[in-house]
Amino acid sequence: MLSLSIGDYPIAPADVWTTLWGGGDRVQSYVIFQVRAPRLVMALVVGAALGAAGGLLQSLLRNPLASPDLLGISGGAGAAAVFGLLTLGIGGPVLAVAAFLGGLAVAAFLLLAGRHRADGGYRLILAGIGIAFLTVAITNYLMVRAQVELAQAALIWLTGSLSSTPWWSVVTVLVVVVLCIPAVVACARWLPITQMGAPTAASLGVDASRVRVVTVLTAVLLTAVTCAFVGPIGFIALCAPAIARPMLGHGAIGIGTSAAVGACLLAAADLVAQFALPGLSVPVGVVTGAIGAVFLLWLLATSKGRTL
């Protein structure tokens, strides 16, 4: 309600409710349905997708530091998308395909890096941090060689922004997220079984290696499609599962709860990005980066010697 009410053209909550149900004047209908609602829905969908992706990876690797941004998946998707934007001149759904291929390439390398290792989860995180630095270097190289106008547009995209969101992009991301729901549900059911060990999982009819691949591919697809349309928004995938875990009360990572928390976090962060500084609207990635940095420091400070 706050997202739909406040702005340069304030609308009372009662008028918002009336407009949503078909009433209201033409100006209110335009402001709500064409300007504010697409941005709000995109924030909810993207936040839910990133929260689910972070929950899948943290549950798979059993480590609260596992997230698409820290593992380099977001960086790979972002570097591929920037290459497509600046070098190939592509956009729209084709850009989403390029971002997915970049994230998939990083995920494939990570799976090979942690294959057949007892400490595969920690190897994946260390390898992901290295890849994240590499993708930053590639992105910076592409930005330096690009024209100033294109580099400025790519820089805003890289920060992560929900401004100027059309309905067609919202629908595209929503369709991909909905198509991923069966895989997310299946992974949420299988992951607790695979954590008991591959032999036990096999005796219960669950192929641990297949679950690993499906989980990573699902997380990559959710991350890549959001990255293609709003940019690599950081730390939502890291924070949402960590907040959802104590809410459940039993220590497990609830994928659905992580998705709900991620949606709320990104919607709230977008409000802060728009209205925290009077007369100045900043990309939402700036806010999520600040929140995530503080959260990561808090997570490390409160570990009290426990293994992350």
From TrEMBL:
Tell me which domain of life the UniProt entry assigns to the organism this sequence originates from: Bacteria
Q: Quick one: where is this thing mainly located?
A: membrane
An example Pfam family from this entry, by short name, is: FecCD
Chain ranges passing through the membrane = 40-58, 94-112, 124-143, 167-191, 211-244, 250-273, 280-301
Q: Where in the cell is it found?
A: Cell membrane
Sorted alphabetically, which keywords does the UniProt record give?
Cell membrane, Membrane, Transmembrane, Transmembrane helix, Transport
How is this protein positioned relative to the membrane?
A: Multi-pass membrane protein
The keyword Zinc-finger belongs to this UniProt entry's keyword annotation: no
| The keyword Mitochondrion belongs to this UniProt entry's keyword annotation | no
Family of this protein = Belongs to the binding-protein-dependent transport system permease family. FecCD subfamily.
Q: What is this protein called?
A: Iron ABC transporter permease
Record organism: Microbacterium gallinarum
